[in-house]
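Q: Give me a protein?
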Amino acid sequence: MNLRERILAVYRGEKPDRVPFMLDLSHWFYQRNRMPWDLSKSYDRPEKELIDYHKKMGVGFYLPNLGSFYETVYPDKIKTSVSKSAGVSEIRWRISTPSGTLERTRVWEEENYAWGIPEWSIKNKEQLLILAEALSSRSYRSDWKKYQEWMNCVGETGVVYIGTGYSGMGQLLNYWMGVEETLYATYDWPDTVREVTDRINQNNLLLIDLLAQSPAEIIIMGDNFSSDIQPPSFFEEWSKDYYAEAISRLHAAGKYVAVHIDGRLKGSLKMFSKIGADCADAVTPKPTGDLFPAECRNDAGEQMILSGGVPPCLWLSGVSDDAFRQAVSAWLELARTNPRLIAAAGDQVPPHALEHRILIMKEMVEGYVL
């Protein structure tokens, strides 16, 4: 079986000849090659250099980090713009509605090779309602030719997930308010937060219906879930209905659904297995996460695919190759009793990771016969 066939076999509930192996190398690859990555634009054409590197190293591809296969359209009454500073060290997004204007900014951090958030934008109820006014007015247009170009480029090296973006709560936590202010808002202005998240989620379902018609086999959702930020009780109140409905619609269209859980795992795996998610993506066990590999399987149940396994810290020079091998081996051992497993990184292979560890992991996976 090739890399693509192994990934799809696990999603279909079949037993592949080897544990599927795939990595999100985008962030590491950009940093290693000093390549700019601009959050203000999407990559309409396949990232050929990145995909070719996956092929060269024998690594499965799955996540087009900056790829976009649909267009978001706003009505005339909503004005949007993006501006960049000289040298593209700062990006500013602006949304104007009849009720007011919102802006958010990201600033380049060279050491992390990432875009930081210097300040959260929404401070009051009125601004929350402006956000709802804007995001509830979106419509979506597909361009599946772009998706097919990516698939043609990836070929048998892997799959190409399509992402849905954030839920209503994810928008507040990750783009507009941050964790602390969002939690305060749910206590101080619960009715407003409910209205805003419901309106955004209802609009998101329009995108879900569009993606249900796409040629993609796998749709990835998620708010960068971590159970210390969105524990099951919080998820139940603010996001469960949306995710359950989205997963149901995608399943009805024959799609598989992965959920990106890149933080604390205890409670998060179970809450998504209960609503039928097919795969937990970016699973990060100890020492970065809060569960050992075997505990991940216990929490996820027997049906959910666990995709991840090697925490970011173990890719770096401060950790020995032996410790890295032990982590890979502990993850692969889960397949002895349940083949619903994908060998990957816990989230991404981080900047400054040691390249030869990619080959170590590949060799270990190839040598592990199911």
Notes: The chain has a mean pLDDT of 96. The chain has one domain: 3-72+139-366. DSSP finds 14 helices and twelve strands in the chain. The longest strand covers residues 100-109.
